[in-house]
Amino acid sequence: MEEDSVSQFDLFTFLDVPSSIKPFVRRIFYSNHESVNRTIRVAPTGYMYIGRLFAGMENAMTIERGDVMYLAKPPVNAVIGVLTANDFTAYCNGRHSQLLIELTPTAFYQLFHRDADALVDQMVDIAPYSRTLARAMSATPDCDNDIRRLLSAIEGWFQPLMAYKRNAPWVVTELARRLEETHGTLDLMATYEALRCSPRHAATMFRRVVGVRPKQFAMTRQINYLFELLASEEHAQFAAVAMEAGYGDQSHCIKALKRFISATPSAVLGDAEFATMKQYLATVSGSLKG
Length: 290
What we know:
This protein is an alpha+beta fold.
């Protein structure tokens, strides 16, 4: 079986999030493939994840320079902190079955009673953070495309956590909401003034709860919004799309692209891997709008 290199997106199917857990879960991804031999590039999204790997990865995630974030044979129950770099890869070999749950910005802080900034750029075993959840995840068999059964199990995972949830600081919840609504283009200083809070204090609290400072979260959300626009506007000029995404000019957008994915617009738009990403983002964007 020949190995190829792809983005993480073409392996996963987007599942509907049960209404009972929507306050804490943004999206659910499920993969179930009989034969996979791939090196997957993992792009930053600005969010944390919890997931169960039923089968398919030996090195769950590494950094291109060779550091191993997490090394274990499946099954694996893991929590993944906010990623800030673009040089992460995961290796799949043979059958691949995985469930990945994208949390809302404050969910980890609320449900696990831990600070999110301690897990930035890390993938770790979930047991030390919630043994109850780890046991429930371990008791969930590979549902082999039985989506209703899988979603029912996920709801069961979250019930004990939600019963003991704590509130996130109001200023963090409001900042995160506004940053998501504006796709990262929010004027942060004006918002701090409107919320009558100290910029330093707000940024420190935001980092504790979400994992990164508001500016970093905004940059990640904005570049992901740019990808969504590129996915939905096939024939638009890049400069026009950059302006719509909130970049002051094309050069500003090019700098952001280079910082985020180490690529120029021409490389991004002409890359076969990005074509897969665009197809995925078009599907997810439509699902989120619904």
